[in-house]
Amino acid sequence: MRTAQAAVGLEGEVEVLLAGDRTLRRLNREYRGKDKATDVLSFPAAEELAGTHGGDLAISLDTAKRQAVEQGHGLRDEVRVLLLHGLLHLSGMDHETDCGEMAERESGLRGKLRLPNGLIARAGVEVATAKARSRFPEGMTERKTKAKRAAKASDAKGAKFKREGREVKRSGVRA
Fold first, then answer.
1. Is residue 62 scored above 90 in pLDDT?
2. In the beta sheet, which residues pair with residue 15?
3. Dihedrals φ, ψ of 45, to 5°?
4. Whole-model pTM above 0.90?
5. Domain total for the chain?
6. Which range is least confidently modeled, 37-46, 58-67, 104-113, 125-134?
7. Domain presence at residue 21
8. Quick check: 42 pLDDT over 60?
9. Inter-CA distances, 137 with 50, 133, 155, 165, Å
């Protein structure tokens, strides 16, 4: 964790919650409006805590176990992949809006940290495979994707959460 955090360049303490799918589903529903479990959630620190607190991560060990089996590596490696992905989000990167910068950075850091294929790289393979199997014209799929991204960005901007008994406006929880 410390090595990955230093490689990302994120300052401050990062708290990590290791939980199950049920907890991640609740958090994903509460902060992102998505009623489903996910592998990792990133909660950036409020501006007034910058420098001392880097943010919070929540990782589903249930999902991490499934993904480790699917990818042919151990749970430890999968959790390390999820930690790196979450740390990149905490540093301000967002693969849903950045034209590939986070994917490139994650790929370089995975090599440096000797980690297996990361989440963005996997999603790229899954997207390419899904497009190849799609019964819809490619343009229609792209339009739907753009509309979904715009809706996600709008939902994330309004996310709030309670920290230490007061409301803090979030810059967006990311998965």
1. yes
2. 56
3. -70, 150
4. no
5. 1
6. 125-134
7. yes
8. yes
9. 45, 11, 28, 50
The verdict on residue 174 lying in a domain is no
Residue 38 near residue 67, CB atoms below 8 Å:
no
CA distance 149 to 9: 27
DSSP state of 174: B
Asked if the model's pLDDT at residue 164 lies above 60, the reply is no
- For 116-141, the pLDDT digits (tens) are 776 777 776 444 433 333 333 444 44
* SS3 at position 76: helix
Q: How far apart are alpha carbons 167 and 16 in whole angstroms?
A: 21
β-sheet bridge partners, residue 41? 58
Q: Which positions ≥6 away from 62 have C-beta within 8 Å?
A: 20, 21, 37
**Is residue 175 in some structural domain?**
no
Which residue in this structure is represented by tokens 């590596």?
A: 73
Q: Could you give the CA distance from residue 14 to residue 45 in angstroms, rounded to a whole number?
A: 9
Distance, in Å, from the CA atom of 160 to the CA atom of 168, rounded to the nearest integer, reads 6
Three-class secondary structure of residue 162 per DSSP:
strand
Q: CATH number for the domain including 121?
A: 3.40.390.30
Q: Which domain holds residue 127?
A: 2-169
CB 4, CB 84: distance < 8 Å: yes
**Longest Cα separation, the chain:** 50
